[in-house]
Design goal:
single chain, alpha/beta, Rossmann fold, 3 domains, six-stranded mixed beta sheet, five-stranded parallel beta sheet, 16 helices, globular
Length: 366
């Protein structure tokens, strides 16, 4: 019989934790569910839930956003992208255009979309105009982009790629001197595509308890209980607590489509740096739709050096799970969803935006 949230919570509260425990979640959707449900307030005091690098908007490299802004401003193109990307600021003086939203206000043809099919429809309706799809996101987003290209798109549709894989960021944290967590909640949406087995390395290579979770309180609490039991018994393994959706090997059609259209390269993550084999780019046989090949280049390598977070912004520490959002000096003061300074305050999957929206007071690290 499936347990409800209260039953899982009682099972967790009945456990004896010998030491403080830090559990990281690397999915913005998980952080939203955890925060909105107030789970931190009802879990044992020596159990900390840490948001990690689970928001693609937050880690989208500044040079990619800058390139999209300049392309939209200086070329006769229509640029489309997922809505959250419009408001992400880059490090420029306030008198200059610092976001796609500001570029749109300055006259650039920039349109928010909710799915790749919208990009195709816009290109079909404007067949004399180049349409550039600025595609940022993790595996869950990249599969629809790959499917769009595999099915065939209008000749005037180009893709400015900024896709990332999730697991290499976790691997990077685990290889660091201070990973900062004792157990991992693996992302549910990514696992539906890539499979639960993609996260087996965390338990097998690093002896870190791991559980795939869904987005209900029941699924998350089941994952927390599994992780705590693994820690108490010192028997780390991968537990799939989202088996109604996630299969061990994931979605074979989606994975096959990704492999057909995209290849994996080293890639920059904003506030983190280069992570080996963590980015998607288009394969050579799709070069005719690669904006970086077919359109004038506005790539600026100096943006990579300037790609840290804005002065005083601690979004990088939030993304790496080093601090909670409300421990940033700018949080809720000069950085709010209405006027975001850092990218974590922009997206609905950004930890700072989630915490602000929930209006809950959460304690810091112990």
């Amino acid at each position: 019989m499936l347990l409800d949230a209260k039953a899982w919570l009682k099972k967790i509260q009945a456990l004896t934790l010998p030491n403080p425990v830090k559990i990281m979640n690397v999915c913005g959707g998980h952080e939203r569910s955890i925060t909105q449900a107030g789970l931190r307030s009802v879990l044992p005091k020596n159990m900390s839930l840490i948001p990690g690098p689970g928001c693609p908007v937050c880690i989208c490299p500044e040079e990619d956003i800058y390139e999209a802004i300049q392309l939209a401003l200086k070329e006769s193109v229509t640029l489309v992208t997922f809505g959250d990307m419009l408001r992400v600021p880059v490090n420029l003086p306030h008198r200059e255009i610092r976001s796609l939203e500001q570029a749109r206000a300055a006259g650039a043809d920039i349109r928010p979309i909710a799915s790749p099919t919208e990009a195709v429809h816009i290109a079909q309706k404007n067949h004399h105009q180049p349409v550039v799809f600025f595609a940022a996101g993790f595996e869950t987003t990249m599969v629809p982009v790959a499917s769009m290209l595999a099915e065939g798109v209008p000749d005037n549709l180009y893709v400015l790629m900024s896709g990332r894989l999730t697991w290499p960021a976790v691997s990077m944290l685990l290889d660091s001197d201070e990973p900062g967590f004792d157990a991992l909640v693996a992302p549910g949406h990514v696992s539906t595509i890539m499979g639960a087995k993609e996260w087996a390395f965390v338990a097998e290579q690093y002896s870190i308890p791991t559980a795939v979770a869904g987005f209900t309180s029941e699924s998350l609490l089941a994952a927390f209980y599994s992780l705590l039991r693994q820690l108490i018994e010192n028997k780390p393994f991968l537990d799939n607590c989202y088996s109604e959706v996630v299969r061990d090997s994931g979605n074979p059609t989606g994975k096959r489509c990704l492999k057909q259209v995209m290849k994996i390269v080293d890639a920059n993550w904003r506030g983190i740096g280069i992570i080996p084999r963590s980015g998607f780019v288009l394969r050579e046989n799709y070069a005719m739709h690669d904006a970086r090949i077919c359109l004038p280049s506005y790539a600026d390598n100096s943006r990579k050096r300037l790609g840290e977070m804005p002065a005083g912004c601690d979004c990088a520490k939030v993304v790496l799970g080093k601090i909670y959002p409300n421990q940033c000096k700018l949080y809720g003061k000069i950085c709010t969803p209405r006027r975001p300074i850092g990218p974590c305050m922009v997206s609905d999957e950004g930890a700072c935006r989630i915490w602000w929206s929930s209006q809950k007071k959460c304690s810091g690290f112990t």
